[in-house]
Amino acid sequence: MAVPVRDLCIVVGASNGFGRALAKTFAERFCAQTPAERRLHLVLVGRRQADLQTTSDACQPTGPARVDLTPVAEVDLANLDALDANVDRVLDTVTTNCRTLPDVVSPGLARYARATLILNAGTLGGLSLPVRDRSWRDLRTFFDVNFVAYTAFFTAFLKRVDRGVCSDHRTVVNVSSLLAVKALPNWGAYAPAKAARHMFAQVAAAEEDPAYTKVLSYSPGPLANDMQRTVRETLGDPEQKLHFTNMFDKGNLVSMEDSAHKAVDLILDNTFTSGCHIDYYD
Ligand SMILES: NC(=O)c1ccc[n+]([C@@H]2O[C@H](COP(=O)([O-])OP(=O)(O)OC[C@H]3O[C@@H](n4cnc5c(N)ncnc54)[C@H](OP(=O)(O)O)[C@@H]3O)[C@@H](O)[C@H]2O)c1
Fold it and tell me: Residue 40 to residues 30, 91, 113: CA-CA distances in angstroms?
């Protein structure tokens, strides 16, 4: 008997902003591009249940329901004491709970054809101070959320979503920034964390067989959203502040939907070179 095929996508930082746009676009594109018998298990990770519910509602495309949604709330990346347990909670929904879903394959067979992990969660880390005025304690806290927690999900995914769980192909997406590859004044927390994330992704790409595992760092461009408003309002460097204000005034910021479409097309087309850094404007 033919077994229905299932794909997996986990979005860490799915509660709002670009993460919500990515989750919604992934569900839409998946349903538009894959055969009707194929299903998507979409795991939405964030802090607040209510925000994840809003993302869930946006991710169920009209027409025949082909998206199984699993929100995993109360995941605060700043809480390192709970990090292992939170990573396990997320991956348990993949390796354990999916076995109870109705169209699951026989024991011993891989449960997903393709698996994607999107690491989107991130913070700005303060933009008012130059490097000389930064405190290492604040930087350590910032790196906990933006780099340490990122590595925890990244490594656990590679270990646990193995060939027994995912048969054909898996992808890890690091939501990056131009600041990962270009130094600008006042980004003394954000830029080094994004650079570290990209290098970690590149090392993984060098280690893993790209026929099975690919890694993408995607820089979404300056988005028309709340994070970008905070940039305009708090950036200590007058030149950049003017630049971003002008972009906003002229309507030149990138829409989250456009950037999410580009990211999801890259993931689903799967023609990028593993370990590369691709910008929305590329
Ligand atoms: N906005 C831009 O112009 C821009 C440009 C380049 C790159 N990016 C990158 O795009 C990604 C998404 O940013 P965004 O623009 O959508 O900003 P955002 O709306 O502030 O989204 C940040 C995401 O990170 C999550 N997050 C923050 N701290 C967390 C914590 N301690 N524990 C768990 N989750 C946490 C937020 O969850 P909550 O909802 O719980 O706060 C939210 O889902 C980030 O990695 C950012 O660096 C953004």
Answer: 7, 16, 10
pLDDT digits (tens, 9 = 90+) for 213-268: 999 999 999 999 999 999 999 999 999 999 999 999 999 999 999 999 999 999 99
- Tell how far the Cα of 62 is from the centroid of ligand 1, in angstroms: 27
Contact 69, 49 (CB under 8 A): no
Total number of domains in the chain: 1
50: domain CATH number is 3.40.50.720
> From ligand 1's centre to the CA of 163, what distance in Å?
31
**Is 196 part of a structural domain of the chain?**
yes
Read off the pLDDT of residues 120-161 as tens digits, 9 standing for 90 and up: 999 999 999 999 999 999 999 999 999 999 999 999 999 999
Judge whether 127 lies within some domain.
Answer: yes
Which of 47, 119, 43 minimizes the C-alpha distance to 78?
47
Ligand 1 pocket test target in 15, 262, 277 with most atoms within 8 Å of CB: 15
In a domain, 139, yes or no: yes
- Output the CA 241–ligand 1 centroid distance in Å: 20
The answer to whether 119 and 13 have CB atoms below 8 angstroms apart is: yes
Spacing, Cα 142 to ligand 1 middle (Å): 13
Does residue 228 lie within any of the structural domains?
A: no
Per-residue pLDDT at 64: 65
Domain housing 271: 6-222+256-279
